[in-house]
Amino acid sequence: MTAGHHHTAGFYASDAEFRALIVPFVEEGTAAGEAVVLGYDERKSALLRTWLSEPDAVVFVGPGHYSTPARTIADYRRLFEHHLARGVTRIRIAGDVPHEGNGGRFAGWDRYEWAVNTVWSAYPVLSACLYDATLISPYVREVVERTHPLLLSPAGVIEANARYTQAHPTPVIAADPLESTPPLIDLTNPSPVQARRAVEQAARPHLPAQILDDLVFGASEAATNAIIHGRPPTSIRIWSTPGRVVVHVTDTGSGPRNPLAGLMPVVKEAGGLGLWLTHQLDIDVALITTPHGFTIRLRGGKLD
Amino acid sequence: MRAHGVVDSAAGLRPFGHLGWAYRDRADFLARAREYIIDGVAEGQWIEFVGDGDTLRDELVSLSGVPTSDIGVATVAEFYEFAGDVVDPVASVDKQVRAVETAVDAGYTGVRAVVDATAAALTPEQRAAFARFEYLIDQKMSSLPISTVCGYDLGRMDKTATTELVCLHPFTNPGSSLFRIYADGPSEFALSGELDASCVAVFATTLRRTLPLSAARDLRIDGRGLVFIDHRALARLDAVLGEVGATAVLSTSCLVAARLSDIMTLRNLRVDPVGEA
After folding, report:
1. Where's the MEDS domain (chain A) (predicted)?
2. In B120-217, where do the E strands start and end?
3. What is the pLDDT of residues A152-179, one digit of tens each?
């Protein structure tokens, strides 16, 4: 197998099938002196420790590693750099991407599964994204099949995936229930200062200080980018309820041209670093493009 | 913590308060001058009224409720020490410190000056020197009985130019500068207000003018008064610290700043979160 990222998907329907896929994947790596990084929940990690002949040769990063797509990409990049600096020739990774079937939210991970084909291409990485076929929705299955160039067969063989396409998936972004109600604040052409004041006013009673600060930063950055890179008129709309605040910053332009916007620190493009930093914080970020314009949606607090 | 903030009046800054005021309307500045002088007279301070042009005395007389005796009137050229066209920052600070000593010896409680400094800050070279003066004199003002309201005329300087100097005051007028740099306690300087894309260039210019004045290389920056600072400002601060061979710890209650600095892996700047000021 050549250098570069080999992005592999696999499906299982039981612990036994999961074991049949993951154990050879891991043990081939450890036997070859490769680094192996696993990001599963406590139950699966415990099972893996009993199944693997050398569990201490594996790095267990836990499910928290899959916090948000942008953070996960950044965390994995740091891990790759760390292992490569220690002379490792290849890194194998596997973990549970969040989706509604395993108690998470798949929103944003569709972009992740597509993006890592590009953003990890410089690293000698073999990744196995193993999904429980009994728990994933048809949409998740569709995304997984479209974004992985390789498939791990039940027999443990890595094969080309005929359904793979390089096309960027159209993210499915569920509406927040608050968005069907009148916004608490609706400003046209806000300056970044006005955007910060508006978020402060609407969110301070409802959010802890750290989340409030994250949301203020995200709104300020979005308002700045809307003015500099978007097309007027711009607006900020804010909804709030105890424990949750939703912010829309909208302009009438077409949004970032780079499909990796927010997932990578695109420092060559003005505004790219701020959007990436926004994605690193403890707020939910969605980029929404419609025929009428581009919206950055920021949500702080409990999303359920 | 030294008092600071955005004020819409020069009244009430007692016993002292270093105020930067960018103005378009001379009457607005003179109204602030009147407020500032009246407070100074009530505090028993020696008052100076400083500017350029031939109408200074007439303007002073026109201020209702302001005594016309026991107030010094001077031109900018007389009030500061100059080296060619630019102020000599250190010599000008020394001159003002001597003026404080003279005033106190004469029975006054300190010195309070109303200065239209526009004539000393028209060119980039003048502003670079005057920014250093503002930074150094504010350090004296944080401990000596002296303060000034410094006016800058937006009819003769553009907004960026006035902001470069107004930002070096603990008190500013609305809309004149989003952020403020001033002396406060044991820190190298205090940083308050907001720092975003709109003012990061002025922030960097100001840092390049003032950071070399610090003898220490491990600086403490008191950012408890910071309401907001973005990644651009953190990166510029980090870069200018590197240019002058210094490192700094910025203490701030702006929680996102510490998190941004961690993600950005800054080389010369560490951000410590502290409780709200």
Report:
1. 7-149
2. 146-153, 171-172, 179-182, 189-195
3. 998 889 999 999 998 888 888 899 999 9
